[in-house]
Amino acid sequence: MSASERRSLPRRAALAVPLLLARPAGAEPGWAGLAADALAPIRHAAAAADGPALLKSFTTEGREDFDRVHAEVAFTYDNALAGLALLAGGERGLALRIAEALRLAQEQDRHWQDGRLRNAYPAGRVFAEAPRSIRPPGWWDAARGQWLEDGYQAGSAAGPIAFAMLLWTALGDPPFRHAAGRAADWLERLRGPRGFRGGTIGHEPAPDALPWVSTEQNLDLAVAFGRLGRGDAAAHAAGFVRSMWMEAEGRFAMGLAPDGAVNRGSALDANLWPALAWPGQGLERALDWVLSRHGLPSGAPPAEMQGLDFNDDRDGIWMEGTAQAALLLRRLGRGALAARFANTIARHRRPDGWIAAASIPWLTTGLGTGLRPGMADFLYPARGHLAANAWAALAALDVSPFG
C-alpha cells in the first residue's frame, strides 16, 4: 500500500533537523512559503548525507513500540516521493542522491538480485563499495535478546517499487533507466488475469505472496510501465484501474480482495491519483466522493472543510492525503479549498520543519500491516513524516508525481 498499504549496526540519518524556518510553525505561508517550508528539512537531510542516502521516514522521539520499530526505517515509497519533490523544487543533485541510493539497494541486496526493491531499508548513507550489504531495517529486542526485522518492511509491494521507477525515469540517466527496467521485469511477474497483484510480504528466501489487487498500485504501475514504453503491461494495469470505476457512485473501488471479490471500500489515493495521472477524462468526480466520505469536520460542506481522513471513520486528518487533495483541487480550479487544506498542513508543521503524519496521536486506517492477520493495525502517528513533507511540497509547487 503506498499510501493505502506498508531494520548489525544501524546506519542512521536523523530526521530531526535544526530550526530552519523563516516563520513560526503553524503560520499560513501561501503556496511559495509552503513549498519552501516543506522542502527545507528534506533538502537538509539529503545534503547532510554527503553521498547516496536514504532518508528516515518518521521522527522517533518516544519509547513506544512505533519508535523502536521505526528508529532507522527509510520507506522506499517515502524516499522516491522525496526525490520527486526535490526534483520539482530544482534540487536535481539531491534527488540524484536518493535515486542512486535506491539503485544501489536494488543492486546490493543481501539476498535478492532480481530487480525488486524492499519496502524499506535502513536510513543513511549507502556505499557502492559494499556489495550485498543492503538489508531491511530492524531493531534490537532486549527482552528477547535478538535482532528483529519487520516482515512488511522486508517485503516488496508493487506500489513502492513503481514509485522508485517514477523517480528513476523522471531523472532519465541511463543507469536509472536500466534500474527501472530491471524493476519492471520483476513487477511483470505479478501479472494476473486482472491487473497486477500486490507483491510479497516477509523474508527471503520464500516470502508470502500478496494475492490482492490494488487500484492505486495498478495506477502507479500503468504510469511507470508507460514511461518505459512497455505498452502491453501499462495497458493491462490501466485496464484494471478503469474496471474499478463505479459509475453510479462516481468513484473507484479499492481493488480486488484475495478471493477475487471487488473491495468496495473507500480509499483516498485510489480515487485522487487517477485524476492526477489522467486529467480530463471525467475521473475528477471521484474527488467529490472523497470530500463527502473523508472530509473533516464530518458533515461540513466542502467550503468549510479543513482536511481529509485516510478512511471514512473521520477520526482525524491525514496530512499526506490532504496534500494530495490540495494538488488536485488546484488543478481543478478549486483554489479556495486547496488553500484551506494547505493552511491545515502548515499548522501541523513542527518546529523542526517536519509535517506531522496525522492530526491526532494515532490515526486509524482500517488496514492491516499483514503482520497480525485480521487486525487493522496499520496506524499513522502524530510524528514528523517524510511523505507528508514531500506531498505538501508537490502540492505547493503544483507538480504531480505522475507527470
UniProtKB/TrEMBL annotation:
- InterPro entries reported in the protein's UniProt record: 6-hairpin_glycosidase_sf (IPR008928)
Tell me where on the tree of life, at the top rank, the source sits.
Bacteria
| Signal peptide range in chain numbering | 1-27
Q: Which UniProt keywords apply?
A: Signal
Q: What is this protein called?
A: Cellulase
- Please name the source species: Pararoseomonas baculiformis
Q: What is the lineage of its organism?
A: Bacteria, Pseudomonadati, Pseudomonadota, Alphaproteobacteria, Acetobacterales
